[in-house]
Amino acid sequence: MSTPTRKFIVEYELPYTHVVRVGISSATPEEAIQKADSMFSDCTLWNDTPEVPLLYDDYEEDGDAGDVLEFKVVGEVGEWPDKDASVKSLENDRLAHRVCELLLAADTFGEPAARESALRTAMQLAGRVMQSHGGSGPPIQAVIGIEGGLVQWVCTSQPLDFVALDFDTETASPADLVDVQCADNGITSVYRFGSLSATVNPDWVSAIHRQADGQ
User: Fold this and answer.
1) What is the pLDDT of residues 38-80, one digit of tens each?
2) How far apart, in Å, are the Cα atoms of 205 and each of 32, 52, 58?
3) How far apart are the C-alpha atoms of 13 and 86, rounded to whole Å?
4) Where are the alpha helices (DSSP H) in 4-50?
5) CA 90 to chain centre
6) Which residues lie closer than 8 Å to 58 by C-beta, 6 or more apart?
7) For the whole prediction, is pTM greater than 0.70?
8) CA-CA-CA-CA torsion for 63, 64, 65, 67, nearest 10 degrees?
9) Sequence spans of domains, the chain
10) pLDDT tens digit string along 19-46?
11) Given CA atoms 164, 170, 174, 176 in this order, what sign does their dihedral have?
């Protein structure tokens, strides 16, 4: 009689260090460090500007890469759990790459049927990627910098476009104002505004949120 199989979750760990390098012009190394520290604090270190180019941003293995991996069982389950967001992200990257390959290949096909088949497959894969992005996931975390009662910057864990509405209009001239519809369908006046993009720095944003939660 054969032994029934069971479902085990097996893992291994490798230590990694997040390494970021930027270019900073300064008179001394100490001044360059001070500038980098200041830009990190106000969440502008990753803006990748001509003055401060982002040169490197990656995770490097920390420790001896020649060490023998140690595998361990971390759980036994009746059914496999849902895939983590990290795995889904890798799958989406592979699907997106395949979509690009199909679109490029379709342009070289002479037969209309082959071209149509490649385009149809590309559309199906693209739909899977978009559906995955539209599904439920962890909420976007944000840190908002305010000075003098005004939003100075927004830093988030994921790309985000935002609009800041300034309702403090007592001293504003009519030319500076525009009417907007509020969430309760009421109409009010705010300063003229535009859509802005947040700076993305998931590590720093997560650290601030953990500090706010007392962790």
Assistant:
1) 888 888 888 888 888 888 888 777 766 556 777 788 888 888 7
2) 23, 21, 17
3) 15
4) 29-41
5) 14
6) 18, 19
7) no
8) -120
9) 1-80, 82-134, 142-212
10) 888 899 988 889 999 999 888 888 888 8
11) negative
